[in-house]
Specification:
The structure is a single chain. The protein has eleven helices and ten strands. The protein is 41% helix and 18% strand.
Length: 404
């Protein structure tokens, strides 16, 4: 590199740090050229302005027309994405000290019909039909950052028997359409059983999804703590054994409890939080009378509760959550309900600034490669922001004339 093109010292340090960061997660890739292409792709997702196409990444990062090589690495190369996700999850479990695993629906709008999993399908979060791919991401959500570490591509039913499209996009035979909660439970099982992670509470916004009772039942069977946002008319006992009596809705149950008192929480302590206050109430869902039925090898059944929030001045709750967490630590429970919004901000950054939506490949393997590499890029960006924030905080006493 000529002196005219030399990078400033801080940029060199950043470049070296990114190389070391990539080395940690791409060690499982079998060949050195695969590891080099992985780092080049991540660099492109982070540093290339505008659209992160493979050609633009090749031009800006590699410096010569290597787009065919890079395209082959992302879309056809047979490297496994699972070990990369495992390494990322273990690293972030330590670096972020996650408060929860937050689940997000992720939508990839597409033109045409040939990319894997594309169909005109209803998008719950957008409340309309789009031509798109739909995925599920599990974020490790800490106080300062949230990063996705596990992914599932949800196949529409119309792909099950379309052998022509399945063959073109190399969809594995075992991949078939399932309900959204089944994909989610599978991802959680992988993280707990295969990766050996200690699970914090699982936080899911399931207001616009069907099968909430199945999700809650499966989470409970696995002994996982959960905080699941539901519609007000969801039966409070969703997922429990059915009884002939009419079951109170989640809203009805918690509004009866609210008559006996609510907790008031004031927002705005942080610079990025709007000011204001909300009232919260919690109610325990009635269970069967008598001692709980214990089955050998299954977790001890924990009481289910309904948590609801009323912004000041409103009569009906604005949000209702089912949870099996202990209500004695209400402030922590309430804090978990704020995580989906913060994770949504991280997802927007991942989509727009780090190229998550810019993938141009069509194969099943390519989709999983791309979202995994985008997760690594986002992890680097999020941890860099966290490091810079801590550095700025450490300088504040000096800037204010504090003791040196």
């Amino acid at each position: 590199m000529s002196k005219d093109n030399e990078l400033p010292g801080s940029a060199i340090r950043d470049s070296e740090y990114l190389s070391l960061f990539c080395q940690e997660f791409f060690t499982p890739l079998a060949r050195s050229d695969q590891r080099r292409w992985a780092e080049s792709y991540v660099r492109g997702l982070i540093h290339v302005p505008g659209r992160k196409s493979i050609r633009r990444i090749s031009d800006h990062v590699v410096g010569w027309r290597a787009d065919q090589c890079l395209q082959q690495f992302v879309n056809q190369s047979p490297w496994r994405w699972e070990p990369v996700r495992l390494g990322l999850a273990r690293h972030l479990s330590s670096a972020l000290a996650p408060q929860a695993w937050v689940v997000r629906e992720v939508v990839f709008p597409k033109n045409g019909r040939n990319s894997v999993g594309v169909a005109k399908q209803y998008v719950a979060s957008a409340r309309r039909t789009l031509n798109c791919q739909k995925g599920i991401a599990v974020f490790l959500a800490g106080r300062e950052a949230s990063v996705p570490v596990n992914w599932r591509l949800m196949l529409p039913r119309c792909w099950d028997a379309d052998q022509k499209r399945r063959s073109r996009t190399h969809v594995p035979e075992e991949e078939q359409h399932r309900e959204w909660w089944s994909y989610l439970v599978e991802a959680l099982d992988e993280m707990v059983d295969d990766w050996g992670l200690l699970p914090p509470p699982v936080v899911v916004d399931a207001r616009y999804e069907v099968g909430v009772e199945n999700l809650v039942r499966e989470l409970g069977k696995r002994g996982l703590s959960y905080v699941v946002r539901v519609t007000p008319d969801t039966p409070a006992s969703a997922g429990a054994p059915r009884t002939p009596e009419r079951q109170a809705t989640a809203e009805e149950l918690v509004m009866m409890s609210a008559r006996h008192g609510r907790m008031t929480v004031r927002w705005g302590d942080r610079a990025d939080s709007p000011s204001g206050s909300s009232h919260f109430a919690v109610a325990t869902v009635p269970g069967p009378t008598g001692p709980p039925r214990i089955t050998p090898g299954t977790p001890y059944p924990r009481p289910r509760r309904v948590l609801a929030e009323w912004p000041s001045g409103q009569v009906r709750p604005s949000s209702v959550w089912l949870t099996n967490l202990n209500a004695s630590r209400m402030t922590e429970l309430i804090g978990l309900t704020r995580l989906p919004d913060r994770t949504g901000d991280e997802l927007e950054r991942l989509q727009e600034d780090l190229g998550l939506r810019h993938f141009e490949g069509r194969s099943f393997r390519g989709w999983h490669h791309h979202v995994t590499l985008a997760s690594v890029a986002h992890a680097y960006s999020a941890l860099s922001r966290q490091r810079d924030r801590h550095y700025e905080l450490s300088l504040r006493p000096y800037a204010a004339g504090g003791v040196r």
